[in-house]
Design brief:
The protein contains 19 helices and 11 strands. Helix 18 links the parallel strand 9 and strand 10. The protein is elongated. It is of the alpha/beta class.
């Protein structure tokens, strides 16, 4: 007996003996050890697992059966698919049949694509895309573009769109907007910014009527204002680059003791408008401040301890991460960066925030009512941009984004409509080669 045949016989016996022992840990252990199927291996040993009560064992056997080309296997898997309720196993059945790369299975896969479970449909699409030049497959995939599931729609839109060769992005006149501070209405200023010049936007919009510098007639007017700004941010953002928004729910004091206070869920109300503007949601980061920094809302409950009267002290804000919608993966954006710049921009700190909970002290400066802490800006700028990138802050306030960008070899474009904050930025950004322009002057760039 050759060494190869001895290996196959031993492996077959190990798996068969494990099943005979009925020891589930032993069975799983042997199944995990089985890698690439040797030529001539007897796959029958895995068929026993298709009726096993342990879903992990059944899943592993379905996966291994996909390593063999045999019509009998396909029939068994199709039969199991009809009765199986476990989503992971049903997906693996589709995957195993798809991995055979056989046109004989196309009718089966097309039928699977009509399943009620979007996860199963997605797995079927992966298998069918290999045969997308086959007329009946192409017809089915085009029909699936109208599927109710938005992820399926996006995947097929990307897969079926004629792809052109991607080229390095070059934006004309980008340097005109580097290290520039503009005093003006952000809605008007943005209309003078060319398409695709911004690499990252990080900002915190004015609070809805919670600070003296922010007054709107209604909450809907406030959201509408933010939406109009976000649409322009989308236009000026380079393909696949990031827009990061820091917001938090806002509490408006009650009118009198006979009325309740009002709380507006700004991060959640603005979120669908950001998606509508053309951004994809990437991550939610929670910025946690020290407990002592919060406004005390818990005092009454602390005294009476009556259920329903509990009000937690708010110590968190949201840092919502979005990416300009594109069919290209993030690796494509990374490939646009020159090797030297990429290497210098790497985050090499031994300690950095690895979770989406960032514990950062608020800024204690009284020069602006809601200024960014430096550490928060440093995280965002270093994690989501490269050296020489252009970072936009449309509500720049005290200019922390500009200061941090200058310290980290990034350029920034800062906008604010209040003269007192422009004056504050002039003092704070001294020595960093910033230019200061009025809203009217930016039209001349």
């Amino acid at each position: 007996m050759t060494e190869s045949n001895l290996y196959m016989t031993t492996k077959y016996d190990d798996i068969k003996n494990a099943f005979a022992s009925k020891d589930q840990k032993r069975i799983l252990s042997e199944l995990k050890k089985f890698g690439r199927a040797p030529s001539g291996f007897n796959h029958v040993v895995f068929l026993e697992g298709l009726s096993h009560t342990n879903s992990k064992i059944k899943l592993a056997c379905v996966e291994h059966l996909g390593k063999f080309s045999d019509r009998g296997i396909v029939k068994r898997l199709v039969s199991l698919f009809k009765t199986e309720t476990n989503t992971a196993i049903r997906r693996e059945i589709v995957s195993s049949i798809g991995r055979q790369r056989s046109k004989n299975n196309l009718d089966i896969l097309i039928k699977f694509s009509d399943d009620n479970d979007p996860k199963v449909v997605m797995q079927t699409i992966r298998a069918l895309l290999y045969f997308m030049d086959v007329p009946k497959v192409k017809k089915r995939l085009e029909k699936l573009q109208k599927h109710k599931n938005e992820v399926i729609q996006q995947v097929l839109q990307s897969a079926l769109t004629t792809k052109k060769a991607t080229k390095t992005i070059k934006v004309e006149n980008k340097e005109k907007f580097q290290n520039l501070v503009v005093n003006g209405d952000i809605q008007k200023v943005l209309k003078n910014i060319p398409n695709g010049v911004v690499d990252l936007t990080f900002t915190s919009p004015p609070y809805y009527n919670a600070k003296d510098y922010s007054i709107y007639k209604s909450y809907e007017e406030y959201l509408g204002f933010l939406e109009s700004v976000i649409k322009e941010i989308h236009r000026v953002t380079s393909e696949g680059r990031f827009f990061i928004l820091n917001t938090s729910p806002v509490i408006l004091p009650r009118f009198s003791r006979a009325h309740a206070s009002t709380r507006w869920a700004v991060p959640f109300d603005i979120h669908p408008r950001i998606l509508k503007a053309g951004f994809d949601f990437i991550d939610d980061i929670v910025w946690k401040k020290p407990d002592g920094s919060a406004i005390n809302r818990n005092g009454g409950f602390f005294q009476h301890r009556k259920p329903l009267g509990y009000k937690p002290n708010p110590v968190v804000e949201y840092v919502m991460v979005y990416r300009k919608k594109t069919s290209k993966l993030i690796d494509w954006n990374m490939d646009q960066i020159p090797k030297g710049v990429l290497e210098k921009s790497k985050v090499k700190d031994k300690k950095y925030d690895k979770t989406n909970l960032w514990e950062i002290n608020p800024d204690t400066s009284n020069k602006h009512p809601a200024s960014f802490p430096v550490k928060l800006v440093e995280n965002v700028v270093r994690f989501y941009s490269y050296e020489n990138d252009l970072v936009l802050d449309p509500f720049a306030g005290s200019g922390t984004v500009g200061k941090v960008c200058a310290q980290n070899n990034r350029f920034s474009l800062l906008v604010d409509n209040k003269a007192e904050y422009i004056k504050l930025m002039k003092d704070r950004l001294k020595g960093s080669n910033f230019r200061f322009l009025s809203q009217e002057k930016i039209k001349e760039l």
